Amino acid sequence: MEIYVNSEKVDFTLEAEKTAGDIIKAFEADCAKSAAAITAVRIDGDALCEENTDSLYGRALDKIQKMEIETLCAQDIIYNLKELAVKFETLCGELEQISLFFQSGKDSKVSAILTSFADLFDMLCRIIALSALFPEYFQEFKIEDRAPLEFLKDFSPILADFEKSLADADTVLTGDLAEYEIAPRLHSFISAVQKLGDSLC
What we know:
The chain is of the alpha+beta class. It has 8 helices and 5 strands; from the N terminus they run ββαββαβαααααα.
């Protein structure tokens, strides 16, 4: 059986492990020592999920050819948050100019900005969800004095209004929401990330 961690083959000396579940638990224990967590497991190409947990966990090691494990460290999340904050900083300036772009007939520019925002916001949601794997490291991480998940929850109504304004082709409302509601919240996220320490794990 071959074991890969983050796409790199590793040497693993078996002790009392007899099943895939035993191997996963052993790696989870190692991860816990270094502020890391397992984020995905594939066994012979099958991704571990809620529906197949029992069958894959119980699979005997001599029935497995390849196990792939993906892990994430709290430090990786900090790096990703900081990288995202830099991208949002550029985007905020563009969001604040959407009304002007509409007035200038630069609809294709607006479309590109909105696509970028959708992609980056989706990334933000994923990273914040992953940060919840390390509550002890991110307990001080607040955005507008709120926990990140609460910040995202409060963002939802604004996004719903934003989507409706786009569907209704209400360019005035779209511009106002982008400049006065969305951009300020993104600035708050940027400020919160800039206060994050670099050595949490």
